[in-house]
């Protein structure tokens, strides 16, 4: 099977298997993002929620719950919760990054303004906790409150690490855990919790989500230096322009000679970026093989994700999650 | 007893009575606003948390719990929760309003930046839910998740109502419930819930907080047109410059003749504000008596707050809450 077939199927197969559940999730999302008093809220959220995101995180929750034999109604609430938290972080990230495109559309803060992005994000965050309360399970509130704190911490850490050439791979990993892996891990874990799965299975699901999230983010950061605008719906070079220290850059800085060091200081630390600098950064990273080295790390995290779920019972959904971990890194293979 | 004595005592007496509890709350706040990985977080929060705010909301929670005979440890967690949610909304409000001062100091977003305000607010919000999870009481999570949704909705509503002369007193009341009364009401209610108070007492506490919050906000809005910079730590005329439709303005617009109507359209709808316009707005409101009318409404809400707690058992704290409702409106009497 070619990489192309591999890279398309796992997500679609998950979506097919979980189709009825996803219909219920989408209905619940539409119902709960409404606001009787403040019509601007659904205007802003619809922009993101209807934009055709992959709904990867809610599918992880649904898959985890179903895989653990859950037959109740609350996996739908938790899947909607996870999507709301994700959407809230995107809205707040739009304020933060001053990025110009998100999912291939103008960001909410260009269509409306920073104010609406902040407040509507807050609204969705509050709504997500209301959904969790409805499940009556305080453990899931604990898991997702912890994830939310880790997300915010990771974003702040990224802010302070940006423009700092002393950023280590360990700090990068913390940032990635915060900005991506924490919600992936929690999305999987709460699916196991709501199904009353054994502790070992819940741990396996969390580890799967964590490793999958890290692989996913490393790949995303690699694509920012190599993907095409069309394929990822965001501008190549965004991270470079925002002077973020992502894995291939951190590795290249560690291997830099004096001239390259001066280059990184100018473009990242001083923010003095000129025509051709992005291409030069790409050339330096290619010379040191840091894109390939970062790719190898992504592959290793994907392998860890796959290893974690071997502890779970045999199930068609387990096979799809396994394939999904392969798909995530296939984007850069 | 003169107004001055009246206006100083209730808050201080509450603080004295609850001194040991407040020490515990402040310790917990300092402990939980720390972040191992992201030192910018306590830098930003300390700025607000240490700024000597009145800690009115956490004292309401402590007072409600003690008044209902609570002897456990978790009223401290809930008081810290309420202060974290309040601080998070201030941080996000700083981004939103582009206001220049908060509690008499420069706002966080001038000392740091919008990014930090958004993300640190998110962090405190997540931390507040972690604190609630520790109490093991899912009802309090429900109450404060609902309050958080109402707060965000109210802020969005205020955003869309700003600059709109068609804003009614009913919309104003909704905005005020969102921006102030929802958290006051929840702060009181969770104190009763954690103490396992009878439903009638919990309802009375919530009604007290709601009415107190509405009185408090009407007074705050009045002071924005008449208080001195020193006494309230924020710039008189902020609401006017931000073109907010607050109660005395809404009442004045309803009574405006053609010339006044043209004035309001220019300064509020078109945002064309010139030297002397604030003084003219004040003069128009004085002519129609709308400041006095709004003051009467604040007094009526304070009376409702006092009436609500007559249902509670006789207790020194009940008397202090009663005095507090008097104090809140004494600022404008």
TrEMBL record, chains A, B:
Keyword Magnesium: yes
Family matches, as Pfam families: polyprenyl_synt
One of the protein's GO biological processes: isoprenoid biosynthetic process
Cofactor dependency: Mg(2+)
Reactions the enzyme catalyzes: 5 isopentenyl diphosphate + (2E,6E)-farnesyl diphosphate = all-trans-octaprenyl diphosphate + 5 diphosphate
CDD domains: Trans_IPPS_HT
GO molecular function, one term: metal ion binding
EC number assigned by the record: 2.5.1.90
Signal peptide residues on this chain, from the entry's feature table: none
Keyword list, A-Z: Magnesium, Metal-binding, Transferase
Keyword presence, Metal-binding: yes
UniProt enzyme class: transferase
InterPro entries, per the entry: Isoprenoid_synthase_dom_sf (IPR008949), Polyprenyl_synt (IPR000092), Polyprenyl_synt_CS (IPR033749)
Stored PANTHER family: ALL TRANS-POLYPRENYL-DIPHOSPHATE SYNTHASE PDSS1 (PTHR12001:SF69), GERANYLGERANYL PYROPHOSPHATE SYNTHASE (PTHR12001)
Protein family per UniProt: Belongs to the FPP/GGPP synthase family.
Function according to Swiss-Prot or TrEMBL: Supplies octaprenyl diphosphate, the precursor for the side chain of the isoprenoid quinones ubiquinone and menaquinone.
Name this protein carries in UniProt: Octaprenyl diphosphate synthase
UniProt organism field: Fertoeibacter niger
